[in-house]
Fold this sequence. Notes:
By secondary structure, the protein is α/β, with parallel strands linked by helices.
Amino acid sequence: MGTENVLRNLQLVGGQRVDIAIQDGVITAITPPGQAEGEHSMDCSGLYVSSGWIDLHVHAVPELDPYGDDIDEIGVKQGVTTLVDAGSCGADRIGDFYTGSLKAATRVFALLNISRIGLERTDELSQLEWIDRSKALEAAAAYPEFIVGLKARISQSVVKDSGIQPLKLARALSEETKLPLMVHIGSAPPAVTEVLELLQRGDVITHYLNGKSNNLFHEDGTPLQELLDAAARGVHLDVGHGTASFSFRVAEQAKAAGIALNTISTDIYRGNRLNGPVYSMSNVLTKFLYLGYSLEEVIRAVTSSAAEWLGKPELAQIRVGQQANLTLFAVEAGGKQLKDSEGDVRAAHYYIEAKGVYANGSLITG
């Protein structure tokens, strides 16, 4: 038997304080403070604990440029124990990505880009012949545990003259593979209303808080009826902050309209991690704390809501007998400048900071 380690004086997001004992990577006890027993203990006073954060939209293939990064740099080092690569790879290289992902400390899933070339170039849906049905079906069948959905970037710079046709082909692939779609929205054409019409329950709209002219809100800040209809039929809304896809103004409109906060994701890659405006998952979560969402709502958006979409609710549970999959973080008092994708800067008085994760049987700190 391995050594039993105790993380002492942690605070759950709901307020309760606990000790968590872990042996051989498995949680053996969750007790009131001071009651867990173990050979080694670490005082975690002042830290919160949640199930491991899940980032539903990242770009984690290091050799791709500009949309690439190292898995653990945007994973466990950010407090993220599970990430979903959002379509960096199509059928041509998904196998290599899967093999590479097994070396990381971060748990990795992938959305298969409907274009076989993936993000080898940034107009990957401009040639319809790159949407190779047989290769996509082959890839989905070959990696059923790894591929959790399909990705289609439906904005003008990506589809060029192909218009809405790539999304129609994606819809057909979704029906054949029984995999949901994640659809990136951006500049028109195609119009965002055309995109929404093709989405079904379980599909994901990512970048739903973007500030571009083709966004999901009228000029007066009210949501498009098509957005309300999509949400009502179970289309999932994902933040996908990215370099150009998050607006404080639009996020305030969404909150005022009562649009549910489903999942918060970063759309992080090397450029926006190092140079902003993303920087880290903690930084993106802080923006939603600033917007007035409760800590429980913010953390739910990167734990239970994301795990539910993945169909893996166990990733959001902290219980005895389960592999420890934890994120330790602090909510610090102090001034922090937050910038959105439009250059709008806000000043937060509290900020979230990841302090480490417990994953793969060990504590990992940045």
